[in-house]
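Notebook B, p. 112. Complex prediction, attempt 2.
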Amino acid sequence: MSDVQLAEAKTRPASRPNPIKRFIKQHGWSYAFVLPSMLCFALFTLFPVAWALIISFQQGDIVSDNQWVGFKNYLRAFTTDSGVFVKAIQNTLYYTILTVVANILIALALAALIQGRHKHVKTFFLAAFYLPAVTSSVIIAVVWKFIYNSEYGFLNYLLSLVHIAPMRWLSDPNLVLNSITLSTILTIPATGIVLFNAAMGSIPPEYYEAARLDGAGPIMCWWHITLPLIKSTTLYVVVLYTIASFQVFEKVFILVPSGVGNSTQVIVTQIYQNAFQQFRYGIASAQAFILFLMIAAVTVVQFRFFRSDVEY
Amino acid sequence: MAQHSVHLKRTRKPVKWTSIMAWIILLIAAVVALWPMYWLFITALTPTTFAIKTPPDLIPLHASIDNFQRLLTQASDYWSWGKNSIIIALTITIFHIFFDTLAGYAFAKKNFPGKDFLFWLLVATMMIPSYVTFIPLYVETRNLGLLDNLLAVILPGLAGVFGIFLMRQYIQTLPTELLEAARMDGCGELRVFWHVILPLSKPAVGALAIMVFVQHWNDFFWPLVVLQSSSNYTLPVGVAGLQGEFTTDFGIIFAGAALAALPMIIFFMIFQRNFLSGVRMGAIKG
């Protein structure tokens, strides 16, 4: 043993009496600070997700008598009740595509229109658009249900003014999914407008001045400067709205509580019925994971799509 | 964009039809956005017999508070719903502020073994829809004997990683020298947190508090599942229940819905600026 090592060995007990104590002294507070949220996260997110994964591969009543059934629940998810889940996925995709495209276009247009206006004008419109967004979607759906009422509803009254026969918005199987979709489209996408407006406001005005000197009109400016520069915001908003639309529930639950045949089944109403009305826990969990996989897949595709473009 | 078009045309005495079009579109959008809100309060103030007549009154010609009186006598649990909603949303918000700021501070300013792994774990679970967790949560709740108890809604509400990200993001921008200075002056870790971090994070804490409160005030699926007796409902669950109970008595249903919407509308009008800055803050991480 060299002198240095000897000296180290001698001093070690004095300078660092106990590595555990030292570790606690150094990092104890850090762990104490993250502990409360990590505990909640573990108990109410991590553990349930892991358990749900197990349940999705089991058959039984969870508490006792569970059997491993492999991927059977994932197959039965699509075949139970004569395959209504397939229809629910189709309905959800239909609803998602229409509402996300409409929401993004409307948000882009309205954000552009309030851009550069007087501060008070901007505040007024942002507040007007955002007010319904802070209201519970249950309450908004209650109002829409009345607006869609086939006898007393405001929409059929509007149609009667132009001599169109009243429609059964919420009971006609061929119409009801469109009615649900329309009510979402007509709810102005406030979050998108706020975010797009902030992103557009942060574009340096010199870019537009330079483009104008080169003879570009407003539409050219919009296409070649605004759109490329707010791309990351667009991605965020698209992902946000897609995830929300995939999980549509309240609206359907309130507008058509008992459903209109299969035409109003969406993924989450299926999960709700299987889990809390039919008590088919395995199938419901499998369907919830299928929903997760769909969201993950779509999000990845959206990230790819937006990244493939040229970065400015 | 309208601004630029106006500049462009300045030289040839503007025919501002684009500007007029822009205003018309904006006003139509505002009407479309606010129409359901307007209709909500109009119908709530109109006795049912008038609410279902054709043509409908576009302004409240027969306004009365009759519906509200009937609501509060016939739906006797209404005040309990309001009380439950406040208890749930407020408790969750207060705990979230402390938990998320503490964790956000540790993730932003401290180094400890396992930090990256924990953070990665939080990010990884972000995309998992909450519906995945509801069956195990239901069993957990039942085993703890908390079914039909407000705690069944409050406890799972304490989890949620969004606030941790928001606070971490914000606290990262605070100068580290300030923390070191406080420590030099003999502040312990708790005092640094309480007297330096928390006051400096006020803007983010305000935005977080609003977002968490609104989210849980409006929460529907989980309370619907675990709250079973009417006196334990929250406002959204109760209002949804009014529909089943009073089917075509729109007056009572709308009075219940309007009264439930009112607190959040007032809250929004007062803190409007904080609401909108919260939305923007939340997007920074994107």
